Amino acid sequence: MKKGAVAIFFNxxxxxxxxxxxMLDTEVYSCIDDSCIGWMRKEFASNDLKCPLCGDDTTMExxxxxxxx
Length: 69
What we know:
About 10% of the residues lie in helices and about 30% in strands. By secondary structure, it is mainly beta. The longest helix is centred in the first third of the chain and has 6 residues, at about 10-15. It is elongated, with a radius of gyration of 22 Å.
């Protein structure tokens, strides 16, 4: 190797092991307060359907989110 040269290595194995992210339309409960960013997936929602951040009411909507295994 020449002086000052930089060796570059590529790892093909790491590229092959990356799993594809599957996006799904998912029902979520989103906070009705415009200044709050709180939301939760339907399957993880609390029984009272209150915002996990501010405690305000939520409304159901659909978002495209990564699939949870």
